[in-house]
Amino acid sequence: MVGKPFPSGHPLADRRAAYAETMAHLGDIPVAIEVLAGALALAPNWAAGWFRLGEFLEMVGAKVEAADAWRKAQAADPSDPFGAGLKLDLMRDVPVSESIPAAFVELLFDQYAPRFEKSLVDKLDYRGPALLLSALQADGFTHATQALDLGCGTGLMGEELRPFCDWLGGIDISQGMLDEAAGKGIYDNLTKHDLGALAPSATSYDLIVAADVFIYLGALEQIIGWIAGALAPKGRLAFTIERGTAPFELRESRRFAHSPAYVTEVLDAAGFHAIRLQDCVLRQDRGVDIAALCVVASRGKVAPSTDRRNLSLDHA
């Protein structure tokens, strides 16, 4: 996770940490552990250092020691920007996390922003925005007066939607990603905000999309409830998720997967009446296709004669 230097504030500790990284790069993890532990003796409240030490210890199978290092990283910075708590949770037989720390997501994408599109599209064959637009059009979507792109990132979804929207706004937690999106000139408004802490919307949207965003939220009740309140009476919601078997489960990737049954239940409880779920492949990870779902849901009432089951491709 620590993709760039996070200085400890102690020059000698930083030099030792740099040497530890060199040894790790050369494959000598035991020496890297020893040197970094020495650096942390000089800078005991260095969250990034403790997190990295935990990663080194995990590499050599020292799980108990790795867990101790990650607890110290959390204690040093309770906002947990490196995701130490997630690493600890993944050590459980059944992870219990219901969300990912906002500071972790923000830091991750601030670091990732300059190379995001090249990595995601060119290397991982990411196709979420195109799949979402296709799913929307299959649902009858042709035009939006007011549209909102949640977790807009660098604007990949916005590029797909712009020709169909009179007004298009974007929200993201990462300023780095928003800066990239702003450079494209496709949004009418961009706002930095944590999706897990949105205030009630003063605007009524007829379309809200979230491409590859809910994988960082876990439990969906809060965000789906917010969306239901922000949509116009006949508004649409479209989003992608990684497909799982449990209602929601934290994976080694430190992303969440969701089951079709859970997604349908949450949408139904929030007042969505027309729900379509379609199996898809969002991208690849280490050469393996990531099974996912494209979801389109409407606030519009379904005609009484319509069998709701025919509107769903839910294979739960």
Number of domains: 2
CATH class of the largest domain: Alpha Beta
Can you count the helices? 12
Rg is 21 Å
**Residue fraction in strands:** 15-25%
What is the terminal-to-terminal distance? 33 Å
**Share of helix among residues?**
25-40%
Instruction: Please give the CATH architecture of the largest domain.
Output: 3-Layer(aba) Sandwich
H/E element order: HHHHHHHHEHEHEEHEEEHEE
CATH fold annotation of the largest domain? Rossmann fold
Shape: elongated
| Main sheet: strands, sense, barrel | 9 strands, mixed
Low-confidence stretches: 302-316
Which class of secondary structure composition applies to the elements? alpha/beta
CATH superfamily of the largest domain: Vaccinia Virus protein VP39
Mean pLDDT: 90
Number of extended strands: 9
Overall description:
There is one protein chain. The protein is built from twelve helices and nine strands. The protein has about 325 residues and is α/β, with parallel strands linked by helices. It has two domains: about 10-90, Tetratricopeptide repeat domain (Serine Threonine Protein Phosphatase 5, Tetratricopeptide repeat, Alpha Horseshoe), CATH 1.25.40; about 115-310, Rossmann fold (3-Layer(aba) Sandwich). Strand 1 (about 145-150), helix 9 and strand 2 form a beta-alpha-beta unit. Helix 1 runs antiparallel to helix 2. The radius of gyration is 21 Å and the shape is elongated. The chain starts with 10 loop residues before the first helix and ends in an 18-residue tail after the last strand.
